[in-house]
Design goal:
With 293 residues, the chain is an alpha/beta fold. The chain has 7 helices and 15 strands. α3 links the parallel β4 and β5.
Length: 293
């Protein structure tokens, strides 16, 4: 695994699964084939499957270690969970072993931070133990954006038990609240001196990005504010999974502008391969320079 250093902190990606998924025309309602083809030369095979044009997606967590804390940002899908997506259903991956191999056993985690509460960002919040979903990281506080949690709590009242976010609200979020491990946060919350939070709503009502800053350097953990690198070049291409596509596009452009201004290392939740990079302005849009360290 690649360990990146940022000031006195380290950043490491731990992957749960990775592979081809949707074709771009299905993923992005505003998809334009010519615009996509103009970028395809650098996206194949790392980000686009050769011959099919299917988008390659990774589901991973970020381990951030500061001088004070060990933090996980987003917790993937989790094992033994019943999901409608066949590729995500009843997984049995060695994810926890991978964390441990990176010097991050479950007991060492101080904070779990979820950029939002979709199914593929909360799964390892809990594990199955004696028929019950219990917190995977026993010494951690789990930080959920207050507005995000309130939205899905309200949706559960409307949709019913086990229906929200493919059941993940019930098996991966509520058990954390019931165990007294959840902390509802606003954007002024600062769990560590090196971390700040910023709202970028649209993909979900309470989507946040988490910024790490030390010694004049910065990284931005952007969750699903973008799913695929093509959205750096076409920030108006919101995914079909966005709660409000217009708002998501505005937030995405704002986040990209913020990354340019701060020269932040962009660390999204689903970019495979060269999974982080620096955003540069290009005309009325942006491009990405990959960090391959």
């Amino acid at each position: 695994m690649t360990v990146r250093t940022l000031g006195g902190a380290t950043i490491e990606k731990v992957e749960e699964i990775c592979g081809p998924g949707f074709k771009p025309g299905r993923m992005f309602p505003k998809f334009d084939q010519d615009a996509f083809d103009a970028q395809k030369h650098w996206m194949v095979p790392e980000h686009v499957q050769e011959g099919s044009d299917r988008l390659i997606g990774s589901v991973h967590t970020w381990i951030v270690k500061t001088p004070r804390h060990t933090i996980l940002i987003d917790t993937c899908l989790g094992n033994h969970k019943q999901r409608h997506n066949a590729g995500w259903n009843n997984l049995n991956t060695p994810f926890l072993d991978r964390l441990k191999a990176c010097g991050c056993p479950a007991e060492s985690v101080d904070f779990v931070m979820c950029t939002h509460l979709h199914v593929d960002h909360v799964g390892w919040n809990t594990k199955l133990e004696n028929g019950r979903w219990v917190p995977t990281f026993p010494n951690a506080k789990y930080l959920f954006a207050r507005r995000e949690y309130a939205h899905w709590e309200s949706e559960r009242k409307t949709q019913g038990e086990g229906k929200v976010n493919d059941g993940s609200f019930d098996d991966s979020v509520l058990p954390i609240v019931e165990a007294g491990k959840a902390v509802m946060i606003d954007k002024d919350h600062q769990p560590d001196p090196l971390l700040t939070i910023k709202d970028y709503p649209g993909h979900t009502p309470g989507s946040i990005a988490i910024n790490l800053k030390d010694q004049g350097k910065q990284a931005c953990f952007s969750g699903d504010i973008m799913h695929h690198p093509i959205q750096v070049y076409h920030p108006d291409w919101s995914s079909q999974f966005c709660w409000d596509q217009s708002m998501s596009a505005v937030s995405r452009r704002k986040l990209l502008e913020d990354c340019v201004e701060s020269n932040a290392l962009l660390c999204p939740a689903h970019f495979p391969g060269a999974n982080a990079g620096y955003v540069k302005p290009e005309g009325n849009s942006f491009r990405i320079e990959w960090d391959r360290t």
